[in-house]
Amino acid sequence: MATLPISPAGMEENISSQYVLLCEGGGDKNFFEELIRVRSLPSFYVTHPRTSIDPGGRSGFASRLRGLRLQHGFDRIKGIIVASDNDRDPAASFKEVRGQIHEAEYKAPNHPFTVSAGTPAVSIMMVPGAGLGQLETLCLEAIEDEWPKEFACASTYAACVGIEKWPNVGKRERAKLRALISHICQKDPNSSLSHLWHEKRELVIPLTHKCFDPISAYLSGFEAAVAEAS
After folding, report:
1. What is the model's pTM?
2. The domain spanning residue 88 has which CATH number?
3. Which domain of life, per UniProt (predicted)?
4. What is the number of domains present in the chain?
5. Angle at the Cα of 51 (from 200 to 49), degrees rounded to 5?
């Protein structure tokens, strides 16, 4: 009897919703899952490029999108949102995401926050919206309002050790966010976005903050947008 091939990790996982949210990494996945829970948003199967299987970050989108076709429940998917950071060049970042979707042989939209009709329909959600930045940009905005004293301390620290002079804004924001988590989250100062909401840790990033409203609104209206596009 021939030996059956072993499926890579994650291939056998059931897709738990008719709507998929594909993001860049584990920290993003945990953020979106917690945002959906806290705000009672519609159900999404949230996933990201798989460690040791797909390339990391948005360069792994094509591989992960192809992998979805091999999972149980793919045939019930009505829509996919691919979420990615704008970073320092929103147009170039969007173009890269769109290219990854085409490479995986899905139909990609021509603009962010629009839906390309198909089976399944596909949309691209660029974070934090129209401007420069990334998910950490929004997290810092929420923390600044919730923890103003700690935010000021982190800014002083960043200036003191030279972080504010780093040429890459995204890395500056990640360093500052990590410093804030370290001195707010007493239960686990070594925590990260990947584990920040696990085991009842302190509320560091208030997901009810208004800066997350546009993301929440898009997730809430995605089912209707898919229906309208079809």
Report:
1. 0.90
2. 3.40.50
3. Bacteria
4. 2
5. 85
